[in-house]
Amino acid sequence: MILLDNVSKYYKGDKKPALDEVNLHIQPKEFVFLVGPSGAGKSTLIKMLTREEKPSYGNIMVGGIDYRYMKKKHIPHLRRRIGVVFQDFKLLPNRTVYENVAFALEIVGVSNAEIKRTVPKVLELVGLSEQAHKFPGELSGGQRQRTAIARSMARQPKILIADEPTGNLDPENSWGIIKLLEEINNFGTTILVTTHDAEVVNQLKKRVVTLSDGKIIGDQKVGGHYDLDGSRSRIAKRSLGGPAPTTIQSQPHILTPQAQIITSTSVQTITAQPQTKPVATPASAAPAIKTAPKTQARTTVAKNPIKPAAKPSVSSGSAVLEQMKKAKAADAAKPVAKRRKFIH
């Protein structure tokens, strides 16, 4: 894990900081490209990670090591966890490929038996088994860069930083180095690559962090492209649902009235619900109440002996219907009785 928390770096005589309040978090096993124009602060950031420089402000943590409490005697231990590949290789010209890789293990006290087991495996990983006994001057640019990668991987670091690893290589060798870094990343090593090679960045579509004037102006988490002005990061945020900076400023003016409208509507709905329940019952019973007087009028003309029904309550709609049925039955029975009496 790499964590930079509000890191700034000022050099004497400079009006602007080399790094200006940089916040960056790289997860274990990530592959990250660090891009930006010359003078953006990429080299300074790498020197901060390797403890060649100290931040003026802020804090750095790498592999669980808090740089605030690091003493000089701890720096070699830190650099065993971080492998660095330089653009100019930095190989020892008077030593063979095998000896250059072995030297990285010797200086940290690895035994000769362990060196004999480790170096051939690392050279096989980078494809230099057949060039093990050649000197750097006898190698091509791509082979020298592979030797530098082998040397940095000999100690099996958790983090590998490659500073412009393809800067001095032709396209064919450049792709070979990038594919090698991808393979190392697949083994679980965190990779941080600084580069100006737009083609490589666009083809790999890894995470891309953009530095400009000492500030991070872009961070494309997935499917990144070479981006020097941070525009692609802003587009990516919008496509993932993130608002543009102008939208964020205008949100309080838009959201506040909407929230008020929703609140007032919900209050009206809540207060209207208690009124709906008592009104519903009289409304359904109203036709029955109006019908009852008409029924009584008909029974009076027919001299119906049945006593008129008592005035129903608001909640007795079913009782009113029963009274109406009885009144109709009595009204229909009376004329039939008279007809029978007339026949006799």
- Percent helix, as a range, is 40-55%
C-alpha geometry: elongated
Amount of beta strand? 15-25%
The ordered H/E elements are EEEHEEHEHHHEHEHEEHHH
Q: Mind sketching the topology for me?
A:
Blueprint: E1 2-9, E2 19-26, E3 31-35, H1 42-49, E4 57-62, E5 65-66, H2 75-81, E6 82-85, H3 97-106, H4 112-125, H5 141-153, E7 159-163, H6 171-186, E8 190-194, H7 198-204, E9 207-212, E10 215-220, H8 231-239, H9 245-301, H10 317-343
Parallel strand pairs: 3-8, 3-9, 6-7, 7-8
Antiparallel strand pairs: 1-2, 1-4, 4-5, 9-10
Helix pairs in contact: 3-4, 3-5, 4-5, 5-6, 9-10
What keywords describe this structure?
344 residues; alpha/beta; 6-stranded mixed beta sheet; 4-stranded antiparallel beta sheet; 49% helix; disordered C terminus
Describe this structure in words.
This protein is 49% helix and 16% strand. Helix 5 packs parallel to helix 6. With 344 residues, the chain is α/β, with parallel strands linked by helices. The chain starts with a strand and ends with a helix.
Structure in a nutshell:
The chain is built from 10 helices and 10 strands. By secondary structure, it is α/β, with parallel strands linked by helices.
